[in-house]
Amino acid sequence: MKNRIISTYPLKSLGLLSITVENPDFSHSKPEGKIMIGDKQYTFHNIVMGRGVQRLDTFTVEYTEDNLIDKQVIF
Q1: pLDDT at residue 49 above 70?
Q2: CA 13, CA 24: separation in Å to the nearest integer?
Q3: 53 vs 23, 25, 28, 40, CA distance in Å?
Q4: Which residues contact 39 (CB under 8 A, 6 or more apart)?
Q5: What top-level branch of life does the organism fall under (predicted)?
Q6: What residues have CB less than 8 Å from 42, skipping those under 6 apart?
Q7: Is 8 exposed, middle or buried (0-12, 13-18, 19+ CB in 10 A)?
Q8: How many CA atoms are closer than 13 Å to the CA of 17, on its beta-carbon side?
């Protein structure tokens, strides 16, 4: 499944939640655009850039305590 969430990391001081997805497809992502995770809407903030040969598979949304693991992201 594309864009299935495999991990999250809170960046509380920034008010953001870092999300890592499996099989990323950011082709329809837009900065500050709305995305769906499960049945809730979030604001897509940015793609966290990898270093070297790391894959680009992480982005941020506004901080939430919702359990997002294993949910699919729809851009």
Answers
A1: no
A2: 26
A3: 16, 17, 23, 33
A4: none
A5: Bacteria
A6: 34, 35, 36, 61, 62, 64
A7: middle
A8: 18
Closest listed residue to residue 58, CA positions, set 27, 6, 22, 19: 19
Q: Is the pLDDT of residue 54 over 60?
A: no
Q: What span, in angstroms and rounded, lies between the C-alpha atoms of 59 and 28?
A: 13
Is it the case that residue 48 has pLDDT exceeding 80? no
Q: Indicate whether this model's pTM tops 0.85.
A: yes
Q: Is 30 helix (H, G, I), strand (E, B) or coil?
A: coil
Arithmetic mean of pLDDT over the chain: 89
Q: Do the Cβ atoms of 23 and 1 come closer than 8 Å?
A: yes
What distance lies between CA 38 and its chain's CA centroid? Answer: 12
Q: Report the amino acid identity of residue 13.
A: S
Its domain, for residue 21, covers 4-74
How much is the pLDDT for 55? 65
